[in-house]
Amino acid sequence: MDDKQFDQRMALLKKSYERMEAKLDPDTVFKQIEEEDISKELSFEIINKGHQRPSRWQKSVVWFVSIASVLLVGLLGTSYMIRQPETYNNSDKQIFQENDDKTIGTYEKWIERITKKYKRVKEDISRELKVSVEELNTFSYIQNADSMLAFYTSYERPIEEDWELQIMEKEILDGLMTPRRALETIKGYGPLSFNESYGIFSLYKQSLNDIEMYFNSLLEPYEQFFKKKIDRSQYPSDLKAIIETASKQYMELHLDTDGSYYFKANPIDGEFAFEPIKYMHPDIFGYFEFLQKGFLVGEEGLRYTREETAESLKIMERSLLFDINTANVTYKELKAVFENTWLALMKGSTNYQVYAEKGIVNKEYLNFLQKVANGKYGEVMTKNAATILNELHQYNNSETLVGLSIQDISAAILQVRKDTAVEEFNIVDIDDAEIAQIKRIYDQYLKSDPEPFINQLSPLNMVSLYLYAISIGDESLQEKVILSNVEIESDFLNKVKGLSIISQMSQYNGIYPMVAVRLDEEHQKEYGKQILFRLSQNEDGFYRIIGIMD
């Protein structure tokens, strides 16, 4: 591997540090390696898809892994203090002109030391899990850690700074952590910030799937034994040993719907809960909830009761609303589960239908909807639930319910977050220059064939043009940018007399684009803080506006 690869790797480590609160001043630590441009950022992300409850203890799991998980690195400023270099200047360049033999010796000694330490820790983990080192080496997360060790101990250029070696050593050893070791890093500290808590969660998650699958496989020989429903005190000693070892990783036995037993970790409120976990930030537990419960909707409907499902969603909601890193794969996965599950709850399922016999709305559904509207199960769905409830009471049906989509729930999340999810949006400040640009686009529209011109507009430009058309009374243009056969309630926008009331516009770059229009402070009481525009493709594949939410 060459110098460029290493510099890219160190830049990636810096990116991980930027997630934590400023305690170690990582900008100073990484100042030296920022001198070279990073042409292409490497992305390392462990994507764990193994959330579904095992069928007969073990279902196939798709688990994409890379060389290393960025999330393992440097997120706990309190647990590992890095010696920081002093500010660099021209005289400091002497550091890099040290004798090559001396530097190589330091690097070689570090390689020897970390290799021995790595082997020792791996042997400790094999004893902790009561698994041979050979079998431990088949675990995906261990293979990840092995790759990381190989990466850092085979660099062609000797490492010149102790702080670089310290960072690398920490990342290598973090890659070996079991769930138990990850959570035990909490000990000795008071309440943690969200970023510190997320760092621990990432360490906890990295090995969880491998270890759960391994212990579930150990239950296979006891399939017939479990069917006898023998009291746990009468279990054979070898089975008791398996359960005891699994409990050290906060795993407890559960009974599946098909009568099979399986292990699932629950360090928060399970049988073997970890008491110091209370020091983690409360908004992190939505991620733990998803790891424990998995997907809440299965092929046959809800996997838990309606109330249990809604309570889980309430916990997940807190993480979705608090975590600012919305571009993270784990966040997006949690968000998708949240949206799909709420859609199933609102639309009804086999066990929880909206309508009873003779087309009358089910009383239990109305009671549940009232609880949602009252905020019992979180903030995100309160407005939608209240609207649907009102329509059902008046008309015994609800157009809002019929048309409810994942995009509506996604928009509701954004509204409650009270921001425009900067990580997922392209943001434009609406100043005089931008307003002049919008007017030029409108002038070009007047000189062009309308439909082809509108077809090539970006969602943000389309919404800009729509608002400008309202301000000057061009109803023809307003109709052209709205999807045909779609009625939009936009009366409250008729008061818009100019674009100067807008401070920012932001385009969400998802499959179903949204444009957030943020009003300046002077006009927020009249129009609200922001307006969300939803877009979708027409039959020809071109975007048009399909909805507005204030």
List the defining traits of the structure above:
transmembrane helix; membrane; 550 residues; 22 helices; two-stranded antiparallel ribbon; alpha+beta; transmembrane; 9% strand; 11 strands
Could you please describe the fold and organization of this structure?
By secondary structure, the protein is of the alpha+beta class. It has 3 domains: 50-62 and 98-294, no CATH class; 297-418, no CATH class; 424-549. The chain contains 22 helices and 11 strands. It has helices at residues 3-17, 26-29, 100-129, 133-136, 140-152, 162-174, 179-183, 194-218, 223-227, 237-247, 285-293, 306-322, 329-347, 363-373, 382-395, 399-403, 406-417, 432-446, 450-455, 459-472, 475-480, 524-527; strands at residues 47-48, 63-64, 251-255, 261-265, 297-298, 301-302, 425-429, 502-508, 514-519, 530-537, 543-549. Strands 7-8-9-10-11 form a 5-stranded antiparallel sheet, with helices on both faces. A two-stranded antiparallel sheet has the order 1-2. α5 packs antiparallel against α6, α12 (306-322) packs antiparallel against α13 (329-347) and α13 crosses α17 (406-417). The radius of gyration is 28 Å and the shape is globular. The two termini are 53 Å apart.
